Fold:
Amino acid sequence: MPALAFFSALFIVGFEQLVQWKYGAAGIVGMLLLSVGIKAKSPAVSSAGAVLLALLLAGPSL
Structure:
């Protein structure tokens, strides 16, 4: 079980670094809002993070 926790934490950190590299500080804020909203079970906060990430992803096509 500790190995699973280690690899999942490693994946999360790697994914956050990828988002920061590709989308900058706004991507990290979006990921932070999304993860905090999910952990706190707050639909408003997680929705704000999801919308911010969606706007970043769809930005070049708009």
About this structure: Residues 2-39 form the longest helix (38 residues). The radius of gyration is 13 Å.
